[in-house]
Amino acid sequence: MWEKIINCDNTYDGLFYTAVKTTKIYCRPSCRSRKPKKVNVEFFFDMKEVEEAGFRACKRCQPEVEYSPHIAIVRNVIAFLVKNHRQMLVLQDIADHVGVSCYYLERLFKQETRETPRSYLEKIRVDKAVHLLKYTDQTNLEICYEVGFQSTSNFYRVFKRIHNCTPGEFRDHLRSKQDELA
């Protein structure tokens, strides 16, 4: 558990809490506050238990809140990306929308989702492209620009990274499946 708090590992949030005897404060394992001396730390598996022991919640990581204190910002970013996926977006546009700095946004988004806003936007665009490949007769070029990619090479590269095939191969595979069913 000590290693988890040193590494600020958020996968253990809610499974245990670290309480610092000298400050009488308890935190999530992922709290970014300065780390206490190991001898001053107690571990608890239940929030009620740690509060009954006389510890109060950290104001930085807010362990008493069931979800991450930053989830509202992340949801706002995701909604913005889905709504504006066809536009050319840079990180500054997204940061301006949610009212934080670019650096903070990228760090926070990656911490919560395990990916950058750019990679998340690319996944949204590829998902939209898959839908169009399945249900329309648009060309790959038309789909590329329809979903918001600015270049075909980037569209093909990202699509292949996510689906392990090109858009054309994906559509051919869909058609061969439909022919088998018919």
What structural class should be given to the helix and strand makeup?
alpha+beta
User: Which CATH architecture of the largest domain is right?
Assistant: Orthogonal Bundle
Q: On the 0-100 scale, what is the average pLDDT?
A: 89
**How large is the share of residues in beta strands?**
5-15%
**CATH overall fold name of the largest domain:** Arc Repressor Mutant, subunit A
Morphology: elongated
Task: Give the key terms.
182 residues, alpha+beta, DNA Methylphosphotriester Repair Domain, Arc Repressor Mutant, subunit A, 4-stranded mixed β-sheet, 4 strands, transferase
Could you walk me through the main structural features you see in this protein, from its secondary elements to its overall organization?
With 182 residues, the chain is an alpha+beta fold. The chain has three domains: 2-57, DNA Methylphosphotriester Repair Domain; 71-117, Arc Repressor Mutant, subunit A; 120-181, Orthogonal Bundle (Arc Repressor Mutant, subunit A), CATH 1.10.10.60. It is built from nine helices and four strands. Strands 3-1-2-4 form a four-stranded mixed β-sheet. The radius of gyration is 23 Å and the shape is elongated. The model has no long low-confidence stretch (mean pLDDT 89). One of its GO terms (molecular function) is methyltransferase activity. This is Methylphosphotriester-DNA--protein-cysteine methyltransferase family protein. Its cofactor is Zn(2+). It comes from Bacillus suaedaesalsae.
